[in-house]
Specification:
By secondary structure, this protein is an alpha+beta fold. The protein has two domains: about 60-315, no CATH class; about 350-400 and about 415-445, no CATH class. Helices cover about 30% and strands about 20% of the residues. It contains eleven helices and 18 strands. It has helices at about 5-25, 65-75, 275-280, 300-310, 310-315, 320-345, 350-375, 385-400, 405-410, 425-435, 440-445; strands at about 60, 80-85, 90-95, 100-105, 110, 115, 120-125, 130-135, 140-145, 150-160, 175-180, 195-200, 210-215, 230-235, 240-245, 250-255, 260-270, 280-285. The strands form five sheets. Strands 3-11-10-7-8 form a five-stranded mixed sheet, with no helix packed on it. It has a four-stranded antiparallel sheet with strand order 1-16-13-12, with no helix packed on it. The longest helix has 26 residues, at about 350-375. It is elongated and about 180 Å long.
Length: about 450
Amino acid sequence: MTASGRFQSWLRWITALLSVVLLVTSAEPASAWGWGRMGSMETGSAVDPLAPTAPSGRLQEVAPPGAVQQLQTALAAHHPQLQLTSPADGKVLQPNQQTLVLQVSDWPLAQDPEFGLGAHVALQIDDQPPLRFSEAEGGRLRIQLPALTAGSHRFTAYAAMPWGEAVKTPGASLQWRFDQLQGLEGTQPAPDAPWLAMVSPSDLGGGEPLFLDWLIWNAPLQNLREGDARWRLRISVNGDSFLVDRQESLWIKGGGSGPGRVQMELLDGVGEPMSPVFNNQLRPIAHQPGSRPIWMQSRLSDAQIARLLGDVVKSDESPDPELESGAEPATEPATEPATEPATEPQVVQEPVALEKPLDEPMNEPMEEAMEEAIEGPAEEVLPPEATAAETPTSADARPEEVPQEDTPQEDTPPSAESAPAPAPQQEAPQAAPSSSLGGSARELLNADGTQR
């Protein structure tokens, strides 16, 4: 290799080495950055990011109530989607344009007369508390907007749980802006700047545990790697503060059951306020004495969950009339036939009627025989001693000649089986003529007392 070739080779190596040195010396350590124009951190600062902190002191994070967990499981199968139908985003509204239309899908809007608000849609204007809606026609939610002041306004709409929590799945919330009469610059965050929507505490609160929720629009991704903090949210409950770095709702205990206050401040990665005009909000804690909301209970029945999902009218109320109407005809025929046939057969008057016809045919021949006997010698009829002496003998001889009593039983029906019982009563009149009559009058009678 010639001297010029070696020189060119060394020159290339030196150039490459200088390039590496320049790159290494110009590199800076990783640090948390603000949001472009909205950030207060200067480029190249080496301040460590602010670490999140858990609630401490009087505050303690707790698990949601059991009923809330049940409703979360029941609503997890839904994937709500919201779309702005009219007016269009960024439109200038006139005084007569106060109707907002949202398209809602896959979200069971419900309002129970006893249990209160179920799953619903919430609308927030600027930093005002949410307005809640639970009725839609064909998936179209028509909202009559309240009176808006002249100027620019920002809107947030989201699918909400019965306790007011915003569903944070993609498509379940949206934000847009309207101008009343005309827009005013500087009164709203820049279109791509982050801003805070304070969801809870709200009018749905019911004491402890206290529910806290929020939405941060245009929030950059973070927590993808260590040290990439881009934002923090400082939450203060009655003066006790803690920091969070995720958009996840919290249940806090220790704030007290009486009136109180909650403040939320959006900060950059090192704890500096981010546009406090829009991102520093204070809201009172609603204190509602009396009964607690149903979702604050430890457990809900299947029927209660169904009513909060809006499908209880068809599932619970319709079977009741059917059960009541089916029970009435089942009891009526069971009682009537049991009483009527029991009383009728007990009153048996037919045997009484049968005794009379048995006596009548037996008395007619006796009367004829008595008349014939009277025409005979009177001395044979008058002595009573003879009748008294002869009656026992006739009574002893009569049972041998009375097997004919079985014959009427063949012709009588089963219901008249009790009729032969009066037969012994007829033996007395039969014995009288047999003992007192003699001669030709005795021969005119058969053994059973009938006339020959």
